[in-house]
Write a structure and sequence with these properties.
Bound molecules: iron/sulfur cluster
Shape: globular
Strand order of the largest sheet: 8-7-6-5-4-3-2-9
Helix content: 25-40%
Oligomer: single chain
Mean pLDDT: 94
Radius of gyration: 19 Å
Structural class: alpha/beta
Strand content: 5-15%
Low-confidence stretches: none
Distance between the termini: 23 Å
Length: 349
């Protein structure tokens, strides 16, 4: 089938950027995409480098920043950066919640942070703590959520759907509702970072995921977001991300798969013009789900999972029921298990 350009528009510059502020963390999640270490690596961008980069983004009309990690609050200079930018951008922060105190939550509110997204990986401490590798992390995450809500910070819960928590997603919705959360998101498990080594243990088939999502009854007052059919967007056209070492990687789910240049050696907007980056933003895909294209305004689904399972950037996204074509999502291609994975053949060269 001939690939066609079908993403909705051409952007000269990104309007939002994800910043993986550190690849360090206080937890040891078996699902960690950043393969975090306890201490930040010396080659992480310094505070001054981050502040200069953020000023550059402001001067180039970026309007929204999403900070994540690693665990951003694990690096002691994070609040200096937040205070520097929270009134100039729409700022969101993704965190494991365990380092949030009532005083820190009030500081976030005063700084003007837009939304905090907290990873809570199950409805029960046993499930969450199994996944994070740290006993007590569930209760500490919930205490962080309560502190945020008490301080008046808009707060959402995130859950990465996997074999360990699939049976308790309904209870997780009830937990979010009981906490007073208004929006939650269920995310896919991506084959990147530490999770790759545990893929067989954690991954679900598409049927198992679809059945779990279809069975959910969302409590009144709670909004649930997810990225399965008919919400399978190809959001590459408007995505930008920089990791803790200053590498421009397009999207945090493309880490390990692309490298568009380092902001230490070239202006970020030059990396935005990298040929592969332009290609992914154009959205040349060989198949698209009509329902998802209609609802998302883009087509072909996620490029990260398409590449991971098919080794081609224009391949169909196997997480979409209309594009799956019998792909077993529990079985990762063996080439994906290597560091800096490249498929065999021309796509990997
Ligand atoms: S909390 Fe997040 S950053 Fe920390 S180890 Fe877990 S997945 Fe990685
Ligand atoms: S890799 Fe997937 S999640 Fe990331 S920007 Fe592209 S479509 Fe969106």
């Amino acid at each position: 089938m001939t690939a066609a350009i079908c993403n909705p528009m051409h952007l000269e510059t990104p309007v939002k950027v994800t910043i993986s502020f550190t690849h360090s963390c206080n937890l040891d999640c078996r699902h960690c995409y950043a393969s975090c270490t306890r201490a930040p690596a010396p080659r992480e961008l310094t505070t001054a480098e981050w502040l200069a980069f953020i000023d550059y983004l402001y001067e180039n009309d970026v309007i929204a920043l999403l900070f994540e990690g690693g665990e951003p609050f694990h690096r002691p200079d994070f609040m200096d950066v937040v205070r520097h930018c929270a009134r100039r951008f729409m700022v969101r922060i993704r965190t494991n919640g365990t380092l949030l105190t009532p005083a820190l939550a009030r500081e976030l509110r005063q700084a003007g942070v837009g939304t905090v997204l907290v990873d809570v990986m199950g409805a029960r401490a046993a499930t969450h703590d199994l996944l994070t590798g740290v006993p007590g992390s569930f209760e500490r995450a919930l205490a962080g959520v309560r502190a945020l809500l008490e301080a008046g910070v808009p707060t959402q819960l995130l859950l990465i759907l996997n074999r360990h928590n699939v049976a308790e997603v309904q209870d997780w919705l009830a937990l979010a509702h009981a906490l007073g959360i208004r929006r939650v998101a269920i995310l896919r498990l991506y084959p990147i970072g530490r999770v790759k080594a545990r893929w067989r243990e954690m991954a679900l088939s598409l049927d198992e995921m679809t059945a779990a999502l279809d069975a959910l009854a969302v409590p009144e007052g709670l909004t649930l977001m997810h990225s399965w059919h008919p919400n399978d967007g190809n959001c590459c056209w408007q995505m930008a991300a920089v990791n803790a070492y200053g590498d421009s990687i397009g999207c945090t789910y493309l880490r390990e798969l692309v490298h568009y240049g380092s902001i230490r050696t070239m202006p970020f907007l030059e990396t935005w013009r990298h040929p592969l980056y332009r290609e992914l933003r154009a959205g040349r895909v060989d198949q698209a789900c009509p329902s998802c294209s209609d609802s998302q305004g883009s087509c072909g689904g996620c490029r990260s999972t398409a590449f991971a399972f098919h080794g081609r950037w224009d391949a169909p996204d196997p997480f979409d029921v209309t594009l799956n074509q019998g792909t077993d999502l529990r079985a990762l291609p063996s080439w994906m298990l290597s560091a800096g994975p490249r498929p065999p053949g021309p796509a990997g060269s």
